[in-house]
Amino acid sequence: MPYYRLKDLIKAIRACKTAADERAVIQKESAAIRTSFREDNNESRYANVAKLLYIHMLSYPAHFGQIECLKLVASSRFADKRLGYLGIMLLLDENQEVLTLVTNSLKNDMNHSNMYIVGLALCTLGNISSPEMARDLCAEVEKLLGSSNTYIRKKAALCAMRIVRKVPELQENFLSRAKGLLSDRNHGVLLAGVTLITELCSQNTEALQTFRKAVPLLVKHLKSLVSAGYAPEHDVTGITDPFLQVKILRLLRILGKGDVEASETMNDILAQVATSTESSKNVGNAILYETVLTIMEIQSESGLRVLAINILGKFLTNRDNNIRYVALTTLNKTVTIDMNAVQRHRNIILDCLRDGDISIRRRALELSFALINESNVRVLTRELLAFLEIADNEFKQGMTTKICIAAERFAPNKRWHIDTVLRVLKLAGNYVREEILSNFIRLIAQTTELNAYTVQKLYAALREDISQESLTLAGLWAIGEYGDILISGGSFEEEELVKEVTENEVAELIETILAGPYANQVIREYALTALMKLTARFADPNVIRRVRAIIEQYNASIEVEIQQRAVEYENLFQFDAIRPSVLDRMPIPEVKEETNRPTYDEDTTIKPRARTHDLLDLDSDEPIVSTPGQPSIVNTGRKEIDLLADIFGETSINTSAPARTTTAATPIPNTKDDIMNLFNTVQPTVPTTSAPLNNLGLDSLGLGGLNTSGSGGQPFVPTQPFTTMQADILQATPVQQMLVPTDINNMFPINQAVAQSGIYVAFDKDGFNMSLQPAKDTNNPNILNINVIFKNTGVGAVVENLLLKVAIPKTQKLQMEAPSSTTITPGGTATQLVRIANPQKTNIRLRLRLSYETATGVKVDEMMEFSDFPQELW
Amino acid sequence: MIRFFLLVNKQGQTRFSRYYTEFPVPPEEREVMEAEISRRCLKRGEQQDIQNRRYASLFFLIGFEEDENEFAILEFVQAFVETLNTYFDNVVSRMQIDLI
Questions:
Q1: In the prediction, which pLDDT does A282 show?
Q2: Residue A789's beta-bridge partner residues?
Q3: What pLDDT digit, counting tens, does each position of A260-282 carry?
Q4: Model ipTM?
Q5: Partner A contacted by B36 (CB < 8 A)
Q6: Do B69 and A243 lie within an 8 Å CB cutoff?
Q7: In terms of domains, do A151 and A223 share one?
Q8: How many domains does one find in chain A?
Q9: Where a domain ends, among A173, A203, A233?
């Protein structure tokens, strides 16, 4: 028995205990509904569709109800229409063909007298219109935007916004009306209008200009909202219409961005909103947040910015996690712009490091790193180190790297630097990256004055704790290098006790490390090397014997590297004469370069080419010349290849490998011939990308846009293709090389149109002759101007309605002018200009379709192909 | 811009969902995605661009674009629930039994 009402159905479904039960109920009901639809019962249709929609919400199939929804829409009852439109919005999407049937109903309903029905139609259109429907009904929507009814205006504005989002081309229709909406008094319409304008502005920069003029109006609205008294209709816990305020602020943001004048107009109101909105509740915070975002993005004055950052600082003290999170995120974004203002809140940020919520900690950490500068580096580092101790493991690696980088950049003195890194190693040695470690070692080596201090501290640290790998490695290295200093320096302070270090103790320490549970292969390697070095530093023969014994133990180690080292070191003992010098101190590494400069080892070889180019660069429109030697060679290489491809139409270029990496591997066999065939573009077997660049070289001889074969250049420079144009000194010799076997004369007609003024007959039949007269364009060698000549030689009547259609390959572009005349008397001619742009120098193949009628009633329609242009014309 | 709107109950079952943009996810995967999102929010872990409000046993999840004001979204949810309340009488108490 089908459930008659929706409520009963819901109760029944709720009563089901299992999912299978529920499925059964729904299936039975679906079947009942389907039967009822087939009976086409008007009264029950309403209830049935309602049930169907509920079933759809539970994600069971409901597509069979679509037509029923349409029928409901067609009914005259309001409830029916409402449910019908709702069903349409839920069950259909814009791809369904059924949707077009709705278009008519929508149109009628939009002109209905009942405003709610108009509203329904607008709502549906906004939600699911396809682009075609939108285009059809756009005019209606525009009309409704000017309606006198506020409800309708609001709905129309929303609908317009959805349409604009979906079909951006229809924007222009709404521009003028949109502005009018801003003067509306009704908040709903105002809100919808602001949203519409926001959407228009974000899509279209011209609209942006138009709406900038509305800034004063918006400011006025905002002002009245902020300073208004209690307005019961729009009040939300004490603040008048916060939604509208936020929207206006956002629109101001978009309008003020990048525009100084508009930003100035807004300054006052922004300050007012920022200071007068109370922030005890979420509502106030929402408005303040939006204000802060706006201030940050427009060209605001610095006082305003400081105000904004102070607001963010206040957010940070708020107890609500959400607010603090948002504040930290925003500060992260702004700290790059304005660091000083953020410094004031440093303490609070550092407090956030200890917050309970991990995402807050993470944000605070990022922010703290961004805040480090010379003046506060000590304080901040101390805090960060303290945090490192208790930090979660996932932070540790990032932190160690960043702390060390910060220390390197801002270290006030070397000793502090070493101390800091040392502390990092002690706290989180297992999470330190290799580069940091090697930087540290380099630093130690470079600060010779502190060697004693460093090695002592490392020794002390190792005595305490050998579990941190990086610390162990650094310590081992230092002890190995500076073991003598350690001994002779003699004493070091450990917990205010001065201790003597003996050679024996040192050896013992290393032995412990080797035997300990934390030793892995790398540590063993370092340890062995350190021990070996010590034999040259220490004097006590007992110790040396001990060391030697240790090394001997590893003669048979499973790890090949260890075994090799042990055996080799053993052997070294037999060369006592040179042993000390072998194990002498390492030279101090040089200062590391901060920046990465790409290596151009091809520089030297490029030069001859480059010079040549500059020498003979007669072509001013060579696009590549402009950039002087720049570091990003690889990228420009690619770009240049593209440009070259354009110019020379080298179809073999589609690889992405920059030209410089390919040496012209294939020496072109046909050298002499090609030189003679300079006007040909034939590039049969040039697989490498070096070809076009050689073209360029040839080009530099002033061949301009001639689509010469690069082969002319190739015999001269067998290797490197070049990319950059280094403005270098011109030299004669390279040029000589270039010119070796060539006929310079041949190369020169160049910029003149290679007037191959042949005439090619394309069609000649029944007394009608069509011929093509091609000529290369003088200004642009890529363009071929074809003069088409139609002759009425023997048709016997006047030719009328002459029409020529041309089709070309995809890589080319076509432009046709109107023919001189579409009628040709017998014996007469007509001409038509056809221009083909062929940048890629592909084969010009024309498909021509000629049609005409004669006065005698004969209709001719012929199609033909023509590809007989010689290659020099391409 | 609001991207989607989900209502989820405490057990993580989606009670209602509405998408406002073309989601690059076919319908079958949507359920999986919804489960994932609701799981993340129920754990109260990181919430990127998803706002979450809880009313009785029902979670309102709203996903939005990055330039949207988070607090405004929360206000919006509040306004929405209040509207439902006045329109359908006592929605809040009804939510105890998970009835929409």
A1: 83
A2: A771, A831
A3: 888 888 888 888 888 888 888 88
A4: 0.71
A5: no
A6: no
A7: no
A8: 5
A9: A203
